[in-house]
Amino acid sequence: MRADSTAALNVLLVDADAASRRQLRRLLLTLPEAARARVDEAADAQQALHRLAAGDVDLLLLDTALPGVDGLQLAAELQRRRAPGRELPAAVFVTASAAHALAAFELGALDYLLKPPSRARLRRMVARVAALAALASAAAEPAPDAPGGPELSVRERGALTRVALADVLYFSADHKYTLLRTLHQRHLIDTALDELERRHRERFVRAHRAALVARDALVALHRAERGWTLRLRGIDDVLPVARRRLAALRALLR
After folding, report:
1. What are the DSSP E strand ranges found in the chain?
2. Domain check: are 101 and 175 in the same one?
3. What is the DSSP track for 103-116?
4. Is 190:134 a contact under the CB 8 Å cutoff?
5. How far is CA 5 from CA 32, 36, 134, in A?
6. pLDDT confidence of residue 189
7. Residue from 185, 188, 184, 239 nearest 214 by CA
8. Fewer CB within 10 Å, N or C, the chain?
9. Rounded to an integer, what distance in angstroms lies between the CA atom of residue 227 and that of residue 85?
10. Structural contact between residues 97 and 64, judged by C-beta atoms closer than 8 angstroms
């Protein structure tokens, strides 16, 4: 999910009923927070997957009752197709029955609304999307004036704390989140690996499509039964290395 204003949200409505899509679109666009949202529509899972493949969808509003592949199956398929380090759009079910709420939340749904949603209920949902986007933005926002150098914001038992970027040994993709590993701790953050690499390229190098490692933490490369692995200072974690990353890592270890 992008971390900019909800006014610039890219929304995809997935519902077999055209009238329901029109009603939800109109209601969504009456919200001040989403007045400038770009809204696309899909009538079934196949159309939705085609649109989602193009990227740039921030919010997915979907019904459970779709022809063929239903909404729950679509959400599961998106999880299955998710590439390491890539964020999925926030998924919110808008449906006529509460029967599938538990299954929806188990699939990572952000919210579950019953048709027809009230304007107030829809606005609360959009506020949750905005809060999640703000957290994703703050999760890897450096603090340039910090005495010890740049820091990352992480959630620890519900509180927002700071981790010095210099203490991070590696980041790795972990389902919907990114694992941040220091010498003694692990944290989950919402920022994708690609974004972390873009922001902190001078400190971290890609070892694998699912892992960024600190340049100053590299210790050794080892030949394993199925490829190469990487050891880092101070920890026993063994990270896989992509073959095409070997040359760059060897150069850093010289």
Report:
1. 10-14, 38-42, 59-62, 90-95, 111-114, 151-156, 159-164, 170-174, 177-181, 186-189, 204-208, 211-214, 218-224, 227-232, 238-241
2. no
3. HHHHTT-SEEEESS
4. no
5. 11, 10, 9
6. 84
7. 239
8. C
9. 21
10. yes
Instruction: Please say whether the beta carbons of 173 and 189 come within 8 A.
Output: no
155 HSE (CA, 13 A, CB side): 15
pLDDT band at 5 (very low <50, low <70, confident <90, very high): very low
Q: How far is Cα 89 from Cα 12, in angstroms, rounded to an integer?
A: 9
Question: How many C-beta neighbours within 10 Å does residue 228 have?
Answer: 19
Q: What H or E segment, with its residue span, contains residue 201?
A: none
Q: Are residues 162 and 204 in the same domain?
A: yes
* Domain's final residue, options 139, 161, 196: 139
Give pLDDT tens digits for 147-192. Answer: 556 888 776 655 677 889 999 999 998 766 788 999 998 888 888 8
Domain span at residue 158 reads 151-253
d(CA 94, CA 65): 10
Q: Is the pTM higher than 0.90? A: no
Q: Specify whether 18 is located in the same domain as 135.
A: yes
Give the tokens for residue 205.
Answer: 């190098």
